[in-house]
Write a structure and sequence with these properties.
The complex is a heterodimer of chains A (about 110) and B (about 120). By secondary structure, chain A is mainly β. Chain A has no helices and nine strands. The model of chain A has no long low-confidence stretch (mean pLDDT about 90). Chain B has no helices and eleven strands. Chain B is globular and about 40 Å long. The model of chain B has no long low-confidence stretch (mean pLDDT about 95). Classes of the chains: A mainly beta (about 110), B mainly beta (about 120).
């Protein structure tokens, strides 16, 4: 199973940008990079995903390295509601493959 | 559109008992996966169901079993409960594609406490 590594925790000041890194050096050509986040007392929720190109949506941006061995989730202006555990995972070439979560990055947002 | 619905939200059992957790997937989704999440850890994959069959399984003993019904809803059964089975059990649904682009939608989970 392809694995990802993330820092255990990060801090950010409110209304400042946050860059959450993820390393996935064993990624294969058909693996998609997905990010999910889990707010306290809730199930994980989808944030964003990409394959090769950078992606933007209303929640965040995803910057993918040219060699695809790392990626960065960017929250443009952190709010207190963004305090959560952020998971970077790889999804294999078909939807039949099991999805493996690591421990994720716990993001704290300071008012 | 209701997302993934799980029941019950909380339950308490004693060691040796059996438990059944239920999951209704998001409308349009046909695949259900179950995860166990211990306090302070990431979700651990238990198994995945598609077309009423177990398609993938994680590193969990046979005490953990499941079922998927024709309407795509699913059950997770755990027999002979141990203290270590205390956790948040998450259900996630998705639809089948030939791509890793499809997104998982999670329920809020069922919190199981084993005494």
């Amino acid at each position: 199973d392809a694995k990802t590594t993330q820092p255990n925790s990060m801090e950010s000041n409110e209304e400042e940008p946050v860059h959450l890194p993820c390393n996935h050096s064993t990624i294969s050509g058909t693996d998609y990079i997905h990010w999910y986040r889990q707010l306290p007392s809730q199930g994980p929720e989808y944030v964003i995903h990409g394959l090769t190109s950078n992606v933007n949506n209303r929640m965040a941006s995803l910057a993918i390295a040219e060699d695809r061995k790392s990626s960065t989730l960017i929250l443009h202006r952190a709010t207190l509601r963004d305090a959560a555990v952020y998971y970077c995972i790889l999804r294999f070439g078909t939807s039949y493959d099991k999805v493996i979560f690591g421990p994720g990055t716990s993001l704290s947002v300071i008012p | 559109d209701a997302g993934v619905t799980q029941s019950p939200t909380h339950l308490i059992k004693t060691r040796g008992q059996q438990v059944t957790l239920r999951c209704s997937p998001k409308s349009g989704h046909d695949t259900v996966s179950w995860y166990q999440q211990a306090l302070g850890q990431g979700p651990q994959f238990i198994f995945q169901y598609y077309e009423e069959e177990e398609r993938q399984r994680g590193n969990f003993p046979d005490r953990f079993s499941g079922h998927q019904f024709p309407n795509y809803s699913s059950e997770l059964n755990v027999n002979a409960l141990l203290l270590g089975d205390s956790a948040l059990y998450l259900c996630a649904s998705s639809f089948v594609t030939d791509s890793g682009a499809n997104v998982l939608t999670f329920g809020a989970g069922s919190r199981l406490t084993v005494l």
